[in-house]
Write a structure and sequence with these properties.
There is one protein chain. The protein is built from one helix and 27 strands. By secondary structure, the protein is mainly β. The protein is globular and about 65 Å long. The two termini are 20 Å apart. Bound molecules: calcium ion (4 copies). One calcium ion (CA) binds next to loops.
């Protein structure tokens, strides 16, 4: 557990330097190691009559806009203790770190035979914990709903739900992507959502991409919106609960990022993360709103801090080995390969460590290809 420590220096000019050592043990390279706070004259502070509020410290917690990551909330500032509440309480960039809030549970769904692989210790050790009884092997998509239950589907429209972490599965009515092209099911699907909607992308080489959404936990689906046909068919979707929906699509000329700010009803092409990428589509958004993707099959990892508009290379996989999915557990990132390797980053994707291998739990050789597995980080 990391205990926040702050050294406060007061100079004769009336400035306070606050040095935050919280993140030292995880070597976060983007956060400043010290910040300067101007002490405002006392006549600008809020009075009992409420006639004056300092515009640089609206919540009057003593921290200005430079250092206060939520200036509307006096219980959030750099000198408060982090607690497990899905919020960055102490403004160090990390939401509920695993050292404080416990190890991550990560679940892999293998579409080749429906096997569920689970790690309860942040990706180090894995066991087989269930089987989704798909009738035919298929590309799969997997999500956790806001009630904690799991939802699994295939490109051919099979839809299954589990209320016990993946041990037992109940079949739901077939999903519309089973028949949404003339020739049959979609070519590639992806699923995400947590909050009001579950989203599923469906792509095919003969039409625009379709985004389905469900506000009934997967029992019924509607078409929320579409995005323009792309030459590549690989796709992924990531959504912030009650926030933006991101779709990544990988035509051969580069990875394209579409964003919707109205729950999928319309999409705008907001950015490109690589001019060379033409492989797998991967997108993930963490609890702080940073969006991540990858140039897989290259080994470059990209991030955007401004809602998908600008992208910059952030770090390299140690060895991509066909990374199929990125998941977040608060602000820790996991990258899971179809070949089994599990990578973990605790510094927002700048560096990655190999922590385990989900394939080691398998009773057979790993035969799956990208799109044939999907992964969730369980909250
Ligand atoms: Ca403040
Ligand atoms: Ca505050
Ligand atoms: Ca927190
Ligand atoms: Ca924090």
């Amino acid at each position: 557990m990391s205990v926040p420590l702050f050294f406060i220096y007061i100079s004769c000019q009336g400035e306070v330097l606050v040095s935050d050592t919280t993140a030292k043990d995880i070597n976060e390279p983007t956060e400043p190691s010290s910040d300067k706070i101007e002490i405002e004259p006392s006549d600008e502070s809020t009075t009992d009559s409420g006639t004056s509020i300092d515009p640089n410290d609206v919540d009057s917690d003593g921290y200005d806009l430079e250092t206060d990551c939520d200036d509307q909330n006096p219980d959030i500032h750099p000198d408060i203790e982090e607690i497990c509440d899905s919020i960055d309480n102490n403004c160090d960039g990390f939401v509920d770190p695993e050292e404080l809030c416990g190890p991550a549970t990560i679940v892999v769904l293998d579409g080749y035979d429906g096997t569920i692989y689970t790690s309860h210790d942040s990706g180090f050790n894995w066991e087989i914990t269930g089987i989704v009884p798909f009738t035919t092997p298929a590309k799969v998509a997997f999500a956790q709903k806001s009630d904690g239950s799991f939802l699994a589907t295939t490109q051919s429209g099979e839809l299954w739900a589990s209320n016990d972490g993946g041990m037992n599965w109940l079949e739901l009515p077939d999903a519309p992507w089973a028949t949404d092209t003339n020739g049959g099911n979609s070519s590639h699907i992806a699923m995400d959502g947590f909050g009001k909607y579950i989203y599923v992308t469906s792509t095919h080489s003969t039409r625009d991409g379709i985004l389905y959404r469900s506000d009934t936990g997967g029992n019924s689906w509607e078409i929320a919106g579409t995005w323009p046909f792309q030459t590549g068919m690989d796709t992924d979707v990531a959504a912030i609960p009650y926030g933006p929906v991101y779709i990544v699509h990988t035509p051969y000329q580069g990875g394209q990022v579409f964003r919707s700010d109205n729950s999928g009803e319309s999409f705008t092409l907001v950015g490109n993360y690589s001019s060379e990428s033409g492989g797998n589509a991967i997108v993930e958004v963490d609890i702080a709103g940073t969006v991540y993707t990858s140039g897989n099959p290259e080994t470059t990892f990209f991030a955007s801090d401004n809602m998908g508009i600008h992208w910059s290379p952030r770090g390299d996989w140690i060895d991509g080995r066909s990374i199929a999915s990125i998941v977040d557990y608060h602000t820790t990132l996991y990258a899971v390969s179809v070949k089994g390797v599990v990578l973990r980053s605790t510094d927002f994707g700048y560096t990655w460590q190999e922590v385990g291998n989900w394939g080691s739990a398998a009773q057979r050789d790993i035969l799956s290809a990208t799109g044939w597995i999907d992964v969730i980080g369980v909250y």
